[in-house]
Records
---
Amino acid sequence: MACAHGLVEHDAGFSIDASSIVFGRGVLAEVGEHARALGVRRAAIFTDRRLAALEHVAIAKRALEAAGVDVAVYDDVAIEPTDASFLAAARFAREGRFDGYVSVGGGSVIDTCKAAALYATYPADFLTYVNAPVGAGSPVPGPLPPHVACPTTCGTGSETTGIAVCDVLALEAKTGIASRRLRPSLAIVDPACTRTLPASVVAASGFDVLCHALESYTARPHHARPRSTPASARPMSQGSNPWSDLGSLEALRLAGLYLERAVADASDDEAREKLTWAASLAGIAFGNAGVHLPHGMAYAVAGLVRDFEMPGYPEGAPLVPHGVSVVLSAPSVFRFTAPACPERHLEAARRLGALDPPGEARPNEAGEVLAAVLERLMRRTGIPHGLSGVGYVEADVDALVRGTIVQKRLLDNSPRPAGAPELEALFRGAM
Ligand SMILES: [Fe+2]
């Protein structure tokens, strides 16, 4: 479809990349049979030190060995991966001569496994595959060996996407690699894994879920994006579309119903299971639509952390958990983006349980209504209040804007254009 001026050809189509998922309580014990069915004979299990001591890794290892798969465990995954930690994992992958990969953990673990498989299979300088403009953004040359991803948190959705996020240390930039070829061959999502998660981890990852859904649903529509040449190069961040809307809306409804309960009580199996399902749905949505400003700004918020530590996370290591870094600026962002598509902002708020009785708010109130329901949920689940709550001050705004302006893939997916002046206002609004 040509635009009104006839200068840019817009993309009337959208692509659906379906994820293969096995979901249910206890399915982690099936990982051996699934890996074997994918042709895996010798697998690397990726995990981190803390998880390696928990039963999840033992269950996966036993299941793989029982299915006749030879296994080696790599438990050196960094909580916030860097180029260096990705490359260390890739060295392990290359030297082990594996024909398949299994990741057991949160987003950092699954992302590290994706990168290890990539650099072990197609060795290159680190920046070769990293998103432009930080890296060269070169396409992944071919298919990767099977990767079975077993998430142990109810948030990242990394098991359903082709994205791996890391810090590039020398450039002080948080960015990533995005390619359909990085998408795991199969996700094994076992809600029983979330029972051991502390409340703060469920809250942080729950808001990651919620923002995946909100951002996919409010992203620039796919038909507003210039057409890709060739058509096979249509990006994963293609904007909101009817397929991603399905997952986003149901994920928002479930998050509205179950997030608070899942945080409040670790033994509330129903709430944690529903939130885990919402995470998978939101992962499918953002893997096919892309996220936008809250995630783009979060890279800078997480990357520039000074001394904030969140209870429930490793002590002595300053860290703004990913979901927290995303949601802190979300109310400020949605006040800003609402005029671009007020009905979508209102519908999202409705799904989250705002507007009872529904239909009372006017379009010009959409941003405020959505921001208010988010802020209420944040207060009730113990999320820090604004960027000042994790140690940022007004003097940090310039650095935060610099760290965000390079996230071109995400900024381009915003329903309302945001350059440096708009980002500055959004960060000030989020303080
Ligand atoms: Fe996220």
Note: The CA atoms of residues 78 and 85 lie 6 Å apart.
---
Amino acid sequence: MYKQLVKVAELSPGAVLAEKVFNFEQEVLLKKGTELTKNHLGLLARYGIDVVYIYHRIQETEAKGWIRKKVNSAIDLPLQKVVVDSKIDQRVRKLVDEVVSFAESRRGLLSYLHRLKSLENDIVLHSVNVTVFSLIIGCKLGYGEERLKNLALGSFLHDIGKSLVGPQILNQSSKLTSVEFTKVQKHTVYGYRILEEQLNINELAARVAYYHHERGDGSGYPDGIRAKFVDEFSRIVAIADVFDAMTNHRTYRAKIKLREVIEYLYVAISQNKLDQELTKIFLDCLLPYPVGTKVKLSIGCEAIVTKVDRNAKMRPVVELTNLYGLNKKVELDLSKQLHICIEEVIN
Ligand SMILES: [Fe+2]
């Protein structure tokens, strides 16, 4: 058994407090070891106490197997969306592997990750994507091994606080009310508390959990501070987070076309929401037409991207589709057929 921060609203009678609970005057309201009754839960709610530490037990082996499997199946997808050399590719895979090993070895951490399982927007897949994109920016910035490891940890755990927000709100497909949105915003503070106060994980990683929703113009949360007060890791993770959230399907909206996301990132730079230099480094790595993209060509045909030469990322190899009933494959290498170009991406 070990302690875990849990929302009072989600507790049932019988849970055991793993830490004392204080009232506003710093007097002990409930002692460590108290087995909570219905009355105790009412008391905590009346005092406005949002979260408490309780003793928790999970099936360690089940949780370990689950997270490793998830990460292994997720790692290829974000790497197909970017252009990086094989050295960076291998380095990123190794760092993701190391961060998973670390998460598996920290008992308390694993249980928080396991709680994310009930959420429809897959936070673990999202975290793998954000880690890959963040590490690519870190590699391009020439970070050393130690710094990259800390960035991997911060990006992989950036949304860990969502484990305390609860599935009712996070799985909601309708637009959130302002009260609900305030509750979602709290995942930044919860994340910091889990990583820094409870698990004593590297301060740099905890800061990412806290600051990754701050924006350069002060329009972000939880504090609404400007970029110059936010550390570089958090500014990197903010870019990776926005990009991944927009390119993937969420319960509240469909995914957005890559080209539109790229345009959005340029707008975000011009409005001083995202860090200009870091976003440009990331934009430079993006593949506008990854394998599988359906496109319309300037000669009027539709086609599907089948191969991308990373040195000619605007001119991939495509296979023509809808060839008026012709039952054979026609491939075009657009890097050689310079008179033909891609006009648009088809949804
Ligand atoms: Fe977040």
Note: The chain is about 45% helix and 10% strand.
